[in-house]
Specification:
The complex is a heterodimer of chains A (448) and B (406). With 448 residues, chain A is of the alpha/beta class. Chain A is 36% helix and 7% strand. Chain B has 406 residues and is of the alpha/beta class. Chain B is built from 18 helices and 14 strands. In chain B, α5 packs parallel to α11 and α7 runs parallel beside α8. The chains are: A alpha/beta (448), B alpha/beta (406).
Chain lengths: 448, 406
């Protein structure tokens, strides 16, 4: 792939060549081998020591990168240096965010099953990864999600109405009824709208981070900002992942790559996805500071993200990789039945053994800021609020039809105006063949 | 420099001292194994860029262009080839807007075609820089930067290598604004430059002209300039445009096409075709390098057949200026579309379909719309002269168009 020849002679005609002065690329002297050097001085590996033993490195001889945790499955703090940096109320707020996402997931999954929604994706088992990482970011930071990060939206202030308006693609949906459910986006919250193709968001995050870096260089009054970008371990097999890490490293971009390693890419288990030491080992290969954390440990994820943000802003900016280990308790989406490829008992075991919500709850209960009554009250009120937002959104009109032609270009092109009026005549000619009832303004919106 | 271990950029840099720098291209081309027409050809003569009326050979002709703003028209001109005009536009863009970034493979030292010469030195390595060798990465990076308010001008070293970036262009750049809806963000600041087209010896992977793959994608603007003056104005328009633009540069023109170019900054309109020569009997629609062949062919046909030919440069290939083409064809009643890329599902198909679909234009047609384009094959090394449109393949179409009409 890519430019193999590098250049090509163009036209030998009577052109003006005078301005094409000779330019000699760097001569080799700066990287030449000094006599008796103990280290390789090739341009591609400046610090490599010579060896007279031929040995191929065995990945298996390297220990797996450790998984950082602060609180164990029982809610007990295992990192003695840890002290929470949030008030009890703040923790409760974040816990409620996780709870809200998990309750909304159950309701919406069922709603899809009842045919009231075309599609849905739950994030059961991964609530801590999204809520805790988001909690460690600044409001001005820019976020690119994959599609299983509703906790990020919730933590940053996306309301239940915002979720429902998008899911029902009604006239209040900022996506204007163009995107499948769960493709949320918010300019106010600095979260880019979700795009279905996997990993495309990763090099975009590198470029966005470079933009933030340059903007701060050009105007030091802009606050320091980072980009956070989410993806699964399956997406990390895409070329875009590798391109993103490499380009972020070479351009020193302040970006935090957050991998949700949940064990499955739809049906494909990690064993069939990769053979290295997870995704974290790749960060090192690209020269990127990397940590692996227990993704079910709210506090570990939050502390790691806090530190990652600090690192990302050091030395003029640099990328950081976090691999959060977790387990996708749910099916991939409403279009998937995961018991076709994994045992029900495996899932039940996981749910019983460890759950990010249960783990934070145990910690909170041990601390004395949460109990059974509060849990029940929270669950009931969240459920009520969701159902209220649900029924409001479901009743709303759909966006006007003309929306389908808008935003392709900054302005409607002559072609699109013409096509819009063609559609209008078609609808006038065959009024019984199209259902316009739900669309705001009916066919009259199709005017130039 | 030890060229063996690194991609051989040095060859591009030492080329000015080679003997073929002088004129008499046909002879020298053969000695360098270019695919060319024979020395005794009567129709397929080498394009003489020093006399073609498509280039402004004097300051007066450059400054008389009515599309230029008064500042440019009342200013001075400078002789530039295509890469110098591109360089001039890039330099202007960097100077006038600090959100402009320029990057791609080998861009920092000036680019393998010299389009980015001196830009890194002048504007700094933070704004003009090399990327790793990853087209999908370059494109994703550019889209992300555009989405956060920058105006990236990304270079793909050859159009032949844009395919790894296809997903980012089609699924991301083109859809960004549509997907974001009321949030209002877009990748509109993005401009992607890429050299395209044959040069006589580029073969399968240094000759392609994949514009029609992008003209199928709503959301993108696809532009191909024919000359240095056009390139400067269209590129500045593309960079300032709030829609993502694909800017394809016919690389054979980088050095060959030289003309007087206004020194002041100026833009030329996007999605607007230009009538290069008025005529009454037949319309030729083309863009990029084949315009020079069309110009030679129409001179031949006007001389031999006594007909009058209108020549249109689409300039922006999508969304394209249908009205300009329709008006011309309503007048002439005949149309030939000429492009270098493969004939199948190419731009010619779209133009021909649009002409016959427009009732007012269709009833004026006196002959079927013809296409002169590359065969439906890849671009083989030795056979370019038998593949790309030339005078001998274009001029008989003019004749045939007239015969059918009679």
């Amino acid at each position: 792939m890519a430019a193999c020849i590098g250049t090509i002679d163009v036209n030998p005609g009577p052109a003006d060549f005078t301005s094409t002065e000779h330019q000699h690329p760097r001569h080799g002297s700066s990287i030449s081998q000094r006599p008796d050097s103990k280290h390789v001085m090739f341009p591609g590996a400046l610090k490599s020591a010579f060896s007279n033993t031929m040995r191929f490195e065995q990945p298996s001889t390297y220990p797996a990168l450790p998984t950082y945790r602060i609180v164990d499955q029982h809610g007990v703090v295992v990192d003695p240096s840890f002290s929470p940096d949030l008030s009890d109320d703040e923790v409760v707020k974040l816990y409620r965010d996780m709870l809200a996402v998990s309750i909304m997931d159950l309701i919406m999954f069922d709603a899809q099953r009842q045919g009231r929604l075309s599609f849905y994706m739950v994030s059961a088992g991964e609530e801590a990864v999204s809520v805790a990482t988001a909690s460690a970011l600044a409001k001005e930071d820019v976020i690119f999600c994959q599609y299983r990060e509703q906790g990020v939206f919730k933590q940053r202030g996306f309301t239940l109405n915002d979720f429902m308006n998008q899911l029902f693609a009604n006239r209040k949906d900022p996506g204007k009824g163009r995107n499948m459910p769960v493709h949320y986006g918010s300019r106010e919250l600095n979260i880019h709208t979700i795009s279905s193709p996997l990993a495309t968001q990763l090099p975009q995050a590198s470029g966005a981070a470079y933009a933030l870096k340059i903007q701060r260089m050009q105007d030091p009054s802009v606050p320091p900002r980072v980009v956070a970008v989410y993806f699964g371990e399956g997406a990390a097999s895409e070329g875009d992942f590798h391109a993103a890490l490499n380009i972020a490293a070479t351009r020193s971009c302040p970006v935090i790559f957050i991998c949700r390693n949940n064990g499955y890419a739809i049906s494909t288990p990690t064993l069939e996805q990769y053979r290295g030491d997870g995704i974290a080992s790749r960060g090192l290969g690209y020269g990127i500071e990397t940590i692996r954390v227990d993704g079910n440990d709210f506090w570990a994820v939050r502390e790691a993200t806090k530190k990652a943000r600090e690192l990302a802003l050091q030395d003029g900016g640099k990328p950081v990789l976090i691999e959060a280990m977790t387990y996708r308790v749910s099916h991939h989406s409403t279009s998937d039945d995961s018991f076709a490829y994994r045992a029900r008992v495996e899932v039940e075991d996981w749910k019983r053994r460890d759950n990010p919500i249960a783990r934070l709850r145990k910690w909170m209960e041990a601390r004395g800021c949460w109990d059974e009554n509060k849990e029940k009250e929270a669950r009931d009120s969240i459920r009520r609020d969701i159902l209220k937002a649900f029924s409001e959104a479901e009743k709303e009109k759909k966006p006007p039809l003309r929306t389908m032609f808008e935003d392709v270009y900054e302005q409607l092109t002559p072609d699109l105006k013409k096509q819009m009026s063609e559609l209008k005549s078609q609808l006038e000619r065959y009024p019984d063949e199209y259902d316009l009832a739900d669309f705001e303004g009916g066919r009259d919106s199709l005017v130039k | 420099m030890n060229g063996a271990s690194i991609r051989p950029l040095s060859r591009a840099l030492t080329r000015t001292s080679l003997p073929w720098r002088s004129s008499a291209p046909a002879v020298i081309s053969r000695s360098r194994q270019y695919s060319t027409h024979p020395a005794n050809a009567k129709l397929n003569l080498p394009t003489d860029y020093s006399t073609t009326p498509l280039l402004a050979h004097s300051p007066e002709s450059a400054l008389s262009n009515p599309e230029l703003p008064p500042e440019a028209r009342n200013g001075t001109t400078k002789r530039m080839n295509l890469f110098q005009a591109i360089n001039d536009a890039l330099s202007t863009a960097l100077a006038e807007d600090e959100s402009v970034l320029i990057f791609g493979e080998d861009v920092a030292f000036g680019g393998v075609f010299r389009c980015t010469s001196k830009l890194a030195e002048t504007f700094g390595g933070d704004r003009v820089f090399n990327t790793p060798l990853t087209e999908q990465g370059i494109m994703g990076f550019a889209i992300g930067a555009a989405a956060e308010g920058m105006r990236p001008v990304a270079e793909i070293q050859f159009a032949d290598y844009v395919y790894p970036a296809f997903d980012q262009l089609v699924n991301e750049a083109a859809k960004f604004r549509y997907r974001d809806g009321a949030c209002g963000r877009s990748a509109g600041g993005l401009t992607v430059r890429m050299p395209c087209g044959g040069v006589g010896h580029g073969a399968l992977y240094h000759s392609q002209s994949p514009e029609s793959l992008f003209t199928h994608i709503p959301g993108l603007r696809v532009i191909m300039p024919r000359s240095p003056l056009q390139a400067k104005g269209l590129l500045l328009s593309a960079i300032r445009s709030n829609d993502p633009c694909i800017f394809m540069e016919p690389k054979i023109l980088y050095r060959a096409a030289v003309e007087q170019v206004p020194t002041a900054p100026y833009t030329l309109p996007l999605s607007k075709a230009e009538v290069l020569k008025q005529g009454s009997d037949v319309t030729i629609v083309s863009y990029g390098q084949p315009l020079y062949k069309c110009r030679a062919a129409l001179e031949q046909a006007e001389r031999d057949l006594g007909i009058s030919v209108e020549l249109i440069d689409l300039r922006t290939i999508y969304p394209w200026d249908k009205e300009c083409v329709f008006q011309s064809v309503r007048k002439t009643g005949r149309c030939i579309v000429v492009h270098e890329a493969m004939v199948n599902a190419g731009v010619g198909a779209e133009v021909a379909a649009a002409i016959q679909e427009d009732p007012e234009t269709f009833i004026r047609l006196e002959a079927p719309v013809a296409r002169v384009a590359g065969w439906s094959i890849h671009t083989p090394l030795l056979y370019e002269a038998f593949n790309a449109p030339d005078v001998a393949s274009t001029s008989p179409r003019l004749l045939r168009g007239m015969v059918v009409a009679c």
